[in-house]
Amino acid sequence: MEPLLSTSAQQKLLDQVRDVIRLKRYSHKTEQSYVAWVQRYILFHNKRQPQEMGTEEVEAFLTHLAVTENVAASTQNQARSALIFLYRHVLQQPLTENIEAIRAKRSKDLPTVLTIAEVKAVLGAMTGTPQLIAELLYGTGMRLNEGLQIRVKDVDFGQQQITVRDAQGNQDRVTVLPQRIVERLQAHLVLIKHQHQQDLDQGYGQVYLPYALERKYANADRDWIWQYVFTASNRSEDPQSGIVHRHHLDPSIIQKAIKVAVRQVGIAKKASCHTLRHSFATHLLENGYDIRTVQELLGHKDVKTTMVYTHVVNRNGLGVRSPLDL
After folding, report:
1. Whole-Å CA distances, 302 to 4, 113, 139, 171, 253
2. Fewer CB near the last or first residue (10 Å), C or N of the chain?
3. Ranges for the Core-binding (CB) domain (predicted)?
4. Confidence band (pLDDT; 50, 70, 90) for 314?
């Protein structure tokens, strides 16, 4: 009979996964998802010890996700990454290179895109910091988390550009800073700097730094340039270090604000924060910018990913006018 994991042994393994993730400075969000996938994998195999399993069991689990649970390809890929991490970095038992699970089907749906008029209507229905962030997302093509994680040093008003750090694929990229929001963004930073000084005066003012920079550069976590541009209204305890930080704004605040604005202006589309990124790319192509430029601004590794927006520009695939419109 295969050895089974007791509840305490399972918890110990999950704690080991957390420790290695934190050692490698992965995000808290990644930690949560990886731990959850490891736990699901163990339960799927009736609490068998992962050390006694391997590629075959991983393939069975991933196939189950695709065939039985009908998950999206991105979800299956995340589970795959979590299990590869478990075996390679925690158990020190790397899996074989080829994991031959049945792959989940990638969605072939075109991304939802708003017209320029619709974007203006949505942004006009918003106010305050959520409006500023939404304008930044549309004006730069950043993902929501990328926009919320920018720090003061990443905004270059002189060069009119923003550096997006550690984006998907752990690569930095540069995108345009919309001139239209410069004045309001500068005014926002004045308020945030005042808030930061108050935190310092009260014995706080630390911010999370990536890759253990707080150990490399003394007091860097209190420097103004490392602070988030869009900060949370309250300080909170970092779940990994236990240090009280002022983190960036919670993504749900912006998601809810955009959802309310879309509903308020009566747009019958399933629009979200990411829709602003899709709209940014599509509108650039419509205005004559080449596909390579758009690819760089979005941070896509493969131009094929960016090419989907050419199909959005020509919704019917050929750019043909209906005879009814002739």
Report:
1. 43, 21, 22, 14, 32
2. N
3. 8-91
4. low
